[in-house]
Structure prediction request, 284 residues.
Amino acid sequence: MNTSTTIDELKSIVHASKAKGKRVGFVPTMGALHPGHASLIERAAQACEEVVVSIFVNPTQFNNRKDFETYPLMMDKDLEVAQEAGATVVFAPHVDELYGGDLAVAPVDYGPLTSSYEGQKRKGHFDGVVAVVRKLFSAVEADAAFFGEKDLQQLAVIRKLAEDEFIGLEIAGCPLIREPDGLAMSSRNVRLVGEFRQTALALHGWLNRINNQACKPSDIQTALRAIESEAAEMEGVELEYIDVVNGLSFEPLRDGPVGPDAFAIVAAQVGGVRLIDNCALACS
Ligand code: PAF
Prediction:
């Protein structure tokens, strides 16, 4: 496995692969790799001969300084996980290599996609995500990029970015991976301490409750309000949002029948750790 910290070096590796007719896959990450990331890298390795994994904790997408400062860093372990899962190149640039000393990013307006839910709760977050992913896509010049469906709204934003600016780049959404007890895997889970690890299971439980009402849209609203009341009583839990949306546009679904793109989405702080989760709704 190659490792590179500069765009020039990365480009020479990728161009050499392309010259040999290899398909190039790209998995962008912020490190602290867990089995969810490994599954993205494995997917990329099944579809592509060259698999570039970027490891870069992007300062411009953190709306909360403490979250940035406490974001887990574990480069040695990450290199092992990436290699084991099938990465052929790890790109781990210094912040100046990508931003050239200027961390100002342009605002992005994709309508509700960037203004609602995550966009509303984390002001400027998608400006930073789009800025860094645009830089990474330009640096890597991949044929396909792999993103987890755990960050469902991010995936929809990236699809729009690629459609507008990176014609021909395939964006592959990959399934959310859960711990055996149902907690959605996230790099932030290592910060859930004591009883909060158990409390965090509430998010998955809430999504299941909503899914159980998928055949009766009017009951979904009742379930959402009941969950909001329950969450308000829970020690150490701050529910930011829970709703049912179209997973492509991120517009809320209110009364109509639940369609193929309907998702329940949730974000909550548990013991000071911000968690998100989602599940596709299926009426069965
Ligand atoms: O999903 C993430 O880890 C990040 O938002 C991404 C896409 C690597 C951009 O920094």
